[in-house]
Amino acid sequence: MSLLSAQHADRWGNRTAIVDEGERVSYAELDARVGSMAGRLAALGVEPGGSVALVSRNRAESLVSMLAVWRVGGVFAPVSHRLTPATVSRPMDRIDPDLVLFESAQRDLVREFDAHSFEEVEHVSPADFRPAERADGEAALHVHTEDGTRVVELSTRAVEWNCRIATAGWGLGRNDCTIALRPLSRPDCLLGFVLPLLTVGGRVVTRRAFDPDDATTAIEEHDVTCLVAGPTEFRELADAGFDGTSAALEWMAARGRVPPDVREAFSVPLLPVHGREETGVNVLHGTPGSGEVAYPFPNCTVRIDGGDVDTVDEANDGDDGTEMGELLVRSPATATGHLDGEAFGDWVAMEGVFRREANDTGGYLLVGDGDDSSENGKRRPRVHPRAVETVLESHPDVREVGIVETVSETGGTAPKALVVGDVSPGQLREFAEERLAPYEVPRAIEPVPSLPRRPTGELDRAALRERFVTRD
Q: Which of 88, 144, 201, 294 suits a disulfide with 284, CB 3.0-4.6 Å?
């Protein structure tokens, strides 16, 4: 991986690798810039095994710095520019970098660190160095969670396998192009399409910040074929009139649940993708026509945790025994461990609660965020709100559903459905009874004009409970 750009310069010298705010960088130019930056990093004292943190918006220099750090044998640690001066110390303290790089626009975030701007590094005379030969188990990448509270370490092998899994799972090739709609400091952006495409000779379009109108223009102008984004970006793209009809666009991957009204605004399917820093960002992905059901990427083995498995037939004899619980992942793309914790084992846990679809070979459905489950009375199986919502939202006349807990006649709790749509409660109850276990069918179904949502587009469950539970 440390020599990636040198190999590609020989193979695809004049092909465009990066389009950065109108500037086109070929693979040959990328290799030259990486070599020059690597010499400057060596002059600044970066040695094999040393770590370099970067605080920057999306730009070509971010990718040049990453490849240069790897070329001298260092560990690259992208730190989000969306953190504040008060919170940026969370990942920095754990990473404890030997060198901090930044773009001048982020100077306020790095004032307490001994940091060098891109402009300052340009004036450093490159030193002679020998390109590093990296072992599979050596650390290559430190990435942090969105709030910066956890930092995980990925080895050279894990980084390479994240790229291999993405290229094989999506069928990426040299003619593909992606646009980085999320910060490159996010592993789902960096390892989702960006770095995988640079390993197969594709193109990457970068922008300093996300703007839906600018993104729409860039997607069409640069023949973007694949992109990954979250609920917020997709909602803003839909509001801006983007419908995905670009002739080149083939894959749109959704990280996080996208509301039905946003999904329906696009002509290209929004395929769910599940993964996290610890497991590798590409673990499960949807296929056209599969809805929210997702399937393992190549070389990813998954299973429901046997220590925390709920099955329908535990409480209802004769049902299909669908597994539900925490999803465990075994893959060559998993992280080594947290920087301030123990190393991970062979199996690494995903966030959230997943259900294996009994009638769908190998398919899994995200049904809860891990803290959404509720007990339906003593010794009753858990009701996962997202599982019920997904079933009810499959009704053609239902747009949105929110499940809340209400007190049942027996003193326990029972699910209640708040529904946005044009279907009567009676019709929807019959629909639910045909598709859900008896304990999952909502005790009450109430039509409502809208549901509260967070800025990310996700259902605001706290606001939902506050607004509706007090009525019972």
A: 294
Domains identified in the chain and CATH numbers = 4-209 (3.40.50.12780), 374-472 (3.30.300.30)
Give the bridge partners for 366, in sequence order.
354
Which residue stretches of the chain have pLDDT < 70?
1-5, 306-322, 358-361, 369-383, 407-413, 456, 470-472
Question: pLDDT of 56-72, one tens digit each?
Answer: 999 999 999 999 999 99
Predicted pLDDT of residue 385: 82
Query: How is residue 377 written in tokens?
Result: 């009375």
What is the maximum alpha-carbon separation in the chain?
Answer: 77
Q: How many CB atoms lie within 10 A of CB 458?
A: 16
For residue 257, the model assigns a pLDDT of 80
| Coarse DSSP helix, strand, coil percentages of the chain, rounded to the nearest 5 percent | 30, 30, 40
Q: DSSP string covering 93-146, please? A: HHH--SEEEE-GGGGGGGTTS-EEEHHHHHTSPPPP-------TTSEEEEEE-T
Three-class SS of residue 313? helix
Task: Looking at 179-316, list the stretches that DSSP marks H as alpha helix, in order from N- to C-terminal side.
Answer: 187-189, 195-199, 212-221, 231-239, 260-263, 312-315
The helix/strand/coil state of 309 is: strand
